[in-house]
Amino acid sequence: MNIGRGDALKILYGMKRIRAVEEEIADKYSESEMRCPTHLSIGQEAVATVLGLLLNKDDLVVSTHRAHAHYLGKGGDLNAMIAEIYGKETGCSKGRGGSMHLIDTSVGFMGSTAIVGGTIPIGTGLALAIKYRKTNQISCVFLGDGAIEEGAFYEAANFAALHKLPVLFICENNLYSVYSPLSKRQPSGRKIHELANSIGLTSYYGNGNDVTQVNNILKNAISEIRNGNGPRFIEFSTYRWREHCGPNYDNEIGYRTQEEFIKWQLKDPIDIFQRLLEEKKYLVNIDLISMNQNIESEILTAFNFAQNSKFPDRASFGDFTYCEK
Amino acid sequence: MEILLIVKNSSNDYNNITYGEAIREALQIAMSADDSVICYGLGVDDPKGIFGTTLGLQDEFGKERVFDTPASENAMTGIGIGAAIYGLRPVMIHQRLDFFILAMDQLVNNAAKWHFMFGGQNYIPFTIRLIIGRGWGQGPTHSQNLQAWFAHIPGLKVVMPATAGDAKGLLMSSIFDNNPVVFLEHRWLHNLEGNVPKGDYRIEIGKAAILNEGLDITIVSMSYMTVEAIHAVDKLEKVGVSCELIDLRTIRPIDWETIVTSVKKTGNLIVLDTGTKTLSVAGEIVATIVERCWDELINSPKRIALPDNPEPTSFELSKEYYVDIEMILEGILNLLEKPDLLNLINIKKRNPHDVPGDWFKGPF
Fold this sequence. Notes:
A: Rossmann fold, six-stranded parallel sheet, 8 strands, B: alpha/beta, Rossmann fold, seven-stranded mixed sheet, disordered N terminus
C-alpha cells in the first residue's frame, strides 16, 4: 500500500465521517424535518474520500443526485450541507436546492444536479474553461452506471476526447438505476470502461470499495490529465446499501436480494480499510476512539446548526431566478 | 427594404449594413472587448460562416475562441453552461432552431435553473443564437418559432430583434448579460438593411420599441412580423387609420409598461406572432392586456399567428399557411369595425409567397 499513515488515517476518518453523517440523516429522516428527496451514499464512501484527498483545493468537481459523499470528500462544508437538507437559509444553496443540489465553490465543488447525466457536459465545460485559461487544474465528473445510457455522456465524452480536455470522468457503477438492474439496461458482457475507451477516453477499471486500488488508479489518472494527456475515464464497482432514495433498507421489496446485499456488505470499504490499517499497525485503539468522538461532535454541531438556523424569508421564494448584476 | 430605415441618419456614427452583418459586427466587437467571449457551433468556421454572421472571426480570434463543434446539441449546451460558470461568455449558434430542441434538458434543467438552485452563487452568461426558417420548403422541422416555449421557462431571457440595429444592440447586451439568453433570428431578416450605430452599441433587454405612434390601435409585433407590420401601418395611415406599432424586441421579460400605456391610449390591441396561435406569446399578451386594461378596451383584442399545424413543405401547400399583409390589414380593419376600408388599399402580395426577396435563392 503506497498510502502513508497520515493520509491513510485521513481517508479512514473521511469515510467514517461520511458514513456517520448519512446514518444520522437516515435516523432523523422520519422526523419529517428534512423534506426533500435524499439519496444516501452509504457503501460508496471510498472513491469520494480518496479523490478529495488527491485533488488540489482549486480542482473542480461536479456530481449527481447522490452527492453527499462527493461534496464532503471534496471538503464541502458539513454544516451548510445539513442545513441545505433542512431547507434553511444557511444551507449551501440557501434552501433553494436541497440534498440533490449541493455546492461549495470555495473548495471547488461546483454543483450537483438531479437529472441523470446532467452534469457530465457541465464538468466538461468547466474543463474547456480550464484549458482556455491554461491553468493546471482538472475537472472531475461523477456519474453513475445509469448515466452511461444518456446521450449527454457520449456527446460530452466525444468532445472531451476531441479537444483533449483536462477532465476525469468517474463512473461509480453500483449496478442499479433506481430499481432497474444493469442487466435490464445494458447488454451483458459489455464493459462500461471498454465502451468509454472506444469513444477515445483512456479508461481504467477498479474495485471502488478497495481504498488502495482506488488511490492507485485515481492518482495515476489525475497525473496523466495534469500532464496534458487529455481526459480519463474510470469505472469503479461499488454498491449502495440503502434504497435508491430515502433512509431505508429495501432488500425485501423484490428487485434485489438479501444475499446480494450481504455479499456487498462483506466488501464494506470502511471495514476492509480499517482492518488493513490495523494489520499495518497504522491504527491503534486510541485513534479510533478519537476519530469517533470527533465525528460525533462534528455531526452534532452540524445538526444543531441546521435545526437552529432560520428558514429563508417566505417572501423571497422568487429570489435568484435571474442574476441581477 | 428601405422601409426599415426608421432612423434616417447620414451621420458618421452609423453604418448602413444588413441584419446579418450587424450580428457579425456585434460578435467582432464583443470578442475584441473581452477575451472571455468565445463562439462555437456547427459550421461557424465553414466557408458560409452561418449566413455570413461569423465570417472571418476565427482568423481574427483563433481556433480556441471560434470553433466548429460535433453535432451534439445537448452536450454543447451543457459545455457552454460549464464554461460560463467558470468565467467564459460563450455564444453558441445553431443554423436552425429545430436542432436545438435536442438540448432542452441542458437549457431548461441547467442553464435556466443554475443561478436559482444554488442560491445565486454562480451565474450563466451564455448566449444561444438560433435561426428560424420560413418558406422555400423549410417544412415541419426547419421553421419552428418556439419563442413561447423558451419564454415560458423562468430563468431564461428571450430576445427576437427585427431590425439590423436591434440585432447588434441586443446581441451585445445578450453577450454581456449574466443570464442565459436565447437570441432568435428570423432567416428572412438576415438581408434587411438598416442604420446601425457603430462601436459598442447596446440595447437594454426587456425594452420594446415604439416604431410608429398612433391613436386608433396598438399593434404589437415581433421579429419578422414587424416587417409586415411596418408595411401595414404605412398602408393604413393612407386610409386614415392611425396605428401605434410596438416592436416587442424582447419576449422575456416582456415590456408590459410600454404595451399597457399604449393600449390605454388607443383602446385596441392586435398582436402579430411568428409562431402558432394556441398558447402563443400573442395569447399571453392579449390575456395580460385584458386583465390590466379591461376598462380601456374598446373592441375585443385579436391575435394573428400561424395556424396550429406544422409548416407544410410543398410550395402550393404553404401559400395559405403564412400570415401575409392582407391578413394583417383585414384583421386590423375588422377589429376596428371598418372592414370596407380594405377596398381602398392597394395590396401588393408577395410573389412568390415563400421567399423574403430576390436575394433568397434557397436552399435554407
